[in-house]
Amino acid sequence: MPVSGSGLDALTVLQTLRHLGSGPRGLTEAEAEERQARFGANTLPGRREASWPTALLRSLRDPFTAVLLCLGLVSAAVASWGTACVILLLVVVSCVLRASGEHRANRSMAALRGLVASTATVLRRTEEDLPPDVREIPVEELVAGDVIRLGPGDLVAADVRLLRAQGLTVHQAVLTGESAPVAKDAADGAQAGGDDFDRSQLCFQGSSIASGSATAVVVATGARTRFAAAHGPGEEARPEASAFDRSVHGISWILIRFMLLTPPLVLMAGAALRDRGLETLPFAVAVAVGLTPEMLPVIVTMCLARGASLLARGHGVIVKRLPSLHDLGAVDVLCLDKTGTLTQDRPVLDRALGPGGHDDPEVLRWAAVNAWWTLQLADLPAPDALDDAVLDAADEDDVMAYDGVAALPFDPLRRLATAVVRTPGRLGTHTLVVKGAAEAVLERCVLADRERAGLLALAARQADDGLRVLAVATAERPARTRDYTPADERGLDFRGFVTFKDALAPTAAEALRALADRGVTVRILTGDHPGTAVRACRDLGVPVPADAVLAADRIDGLTDPELAEAAARTVVFARCAPEHKARIATALRTSGHTVGYLGDGVNDLPALRAADVGIAPRDAVAVARESADVVLAEKDLTAIDHSIAAGRYSGGNIATYLRVSLSSNLGNVIAMLAAGLLLPFLPMLPAQVLVQNLCFDAAQLAFAHDRPHPSVLRRPILLRPRDLLRFITGFGALNAVADLATFGVLALALHGSDGLDDAAVFHSGWFTENLLTQGLVMLLLRAGSAGAGHGRGPGPIGWAAGALAAVGLLLPVSPFGSLLGFTPLPPLYYLLLAAVLAMYTIGLLAVRGCSRLYSCAM
Question: Which CATH number fits domain 239-317+645-850: 2.60.40.2250, 1.10.260.40, 1.20.1110.10, 3.30.565.10?
Answer without folding.
Answer: 1.20.1110.10
